[in-house]
Amino acid sequence: MVVPDTLDLVENRRRMRAGELYYTFASDLVAERERCMAACRAFNLLSTGGEASRRERVEAWKTMVGDTTPLPPPVPTPEEDTILLNDYPVVEGQVKFDYGYNCKFGPQVYINNACTFLDILPITIGARTLIGPNCAFYGATHPLDPTLRDGTSGPEAGKPITIGPDCWFGGSVVVLPGVTIGRGVTVGAGSVVTRDVGDFVVVAGNPARVIRRLEVVVEGRAAVTSPVASNSGPSMCYITTVQPL
Ligand SMILES: CC(=O)SCCNC(=O)CCNC(=O)[C@H](O)C(C)(C)COP(=O)(O)OP(=O)(O)OC[C@H]1O[C@@H](n2cnc3c(N)ncnc32)[C@H](O)[C@@H]1OP(=O)(O)O
């Protein structure tokens, strides 16, 4: 965990943000990950404790992902407050981020237990996307040359990951650095997504391949929406047919 004596922290951070090789054990980055680790611990305690209110969980979530926008004031009953906070992610169990503030989640995202987000660069998850247990979004990569890689003393690089709205990830999916996934995609359990995926397909396997396509016959905003969806406006409404390959 040593970094070069001459390391310029400003230049190191510029390189990190540019997706170039940088040193992850620079003191400022270690401090940011420790902040995030503490925030994750606090969130995970609340999330698995069973007694925290929806508002307490959302506050802990916001701390973890560095969201400083104030929540709307509480309303009289816990049930109404839950509806008011409907757009914030629902997390079932534990979650792990590196920095937290690089993760941007759309409204009404669901994250099942034990998901990992290595957010060196932005990881963006679209609205209403559902993430199964043990999924991993790996936005970090290391040199293939072992001499340059050099264990904990060597440099690494980040790549962004972008997921569209209305996707569903089965359990234990791995998404590799730099991948973009479109809208309305289903990713089968246990898949490793190594390449970009277009809209409205089902992919599965390692490496993930298209196993089905959905033809979108009609697409628009839902005319009638559930009252709990009102914070973010009407949900998307699709009429699709599943096509053979
Ligand atoms: C948000 C949450 O918490 S989710 C909770 C956890 N649930 C899950 O993880 C369930 C995830 N579901 C799956 O993986 C499903 O298999 C789906 C949705 C991807 C596909 O379902 P279907 O369209 O019904 O596919 P179907 O079962 O007909 O399989 C079609 C082909 O794809 C293959 N296939 C299906 N799923 C997978 C998979 N995960 N990995 C590899 N191959 C797969 C099948 O073997 C089959 O191949 P074949 O034609 O050679 O026999």
TrEMBL record:
Pfam families linked to this entry: Hexapep (PF00132), Mac (PF12464)
CDD domains tied to this protein: LbH_MAT_GAT
Listed GO MF terms: acetyltransferase activity; O-acyltransferase activity
Family, similarity comment: Belongs to the transferase hexapeptide repeat family.
Source organism superkingdom: Eukaryota
Entry protein name: Galactoside O-acetyltransferase
Transmembrane segment boundaries: none
InterPro entries (UniProt xref): Hexapep, Hexapeptide_acetyltransf, Mac_dom, Trimer_LpxA-like_sf
Keyword Transferase among record annotations: yes
Keywords on record: Transferase
Domain Maltose/galactoside acetyltransferase: 13-70
